[in-house]
Design a protein that fits this description.
- The chain is an all-alpha fold.
- The chain is built from 6 helices and no strands.
- The longest helix has 32 residues.
- The chain is globular.
- The two termini are 19 Å apart.
Length: 139
């Protein structure tokens, strides 16, 4: 089906609503999970939407986004034509850039606060995500 403007728009709206407050909205993350499973949105659209999140002052929301990607990593694929494969590749590059930025902001937070369980957890998840992006031959 490819990634349409509606696909990116829907995943973007769900993610924006899910991370609006200081803590993530689990119900909306569940909706996003089901939207991915039913192919209502594509992985390319969701990953692009995740990569647009820059509110690093909300580490619990960052954690929820990292968890979303890590939970779905075995299933991330392009189910359509060549265009969708290219869009997924572009989204993965955006995700890698976002992960590096998230790592940088998390390290800055840890340098200031010293002890932050959520910060340490986010740093571990960033490392896991970058390792996967760098080492998995099939993405």
């Amino acid at each position: 089906k490819g990634m349409s403007g509606d696909d990116v728009g829907l995943s973007e709206q769900i993610i924006q609503l899910a991370v609006t407050g200081p803590s993530p909205n689990k119900l909306l993350f569940s909706l996003l999970d089901h939207s991915l499973a039913s192919q209502l949105v594509t992985y390319a659209g969701v990953l692009l939407s995740v990569s647009r999140f820059t509110s690093y002052s909300r580490p619990h929301c960052t954690s929820a986004l990292l968890n979303l990607v890590l939970e779905h990593k075995p299933y991330i694929t392009a189910r359509g034509d060549t265009e969708e494969c290219m869009q997924l590749g572009t989204s993965l590059v955006s995700l890698a850039t976002w992960t590096l930025n998230t790592t940088s902001h998390t390290l800055s937070l840890l340098a200031e606060v010293r002890e932050s369980k959520i910060g340490e957890s986010n740093l571990e998840r960033c490392m896991e995500l970058m390792t996967w992006l760098l080492e998995d031959m099939f993405i």
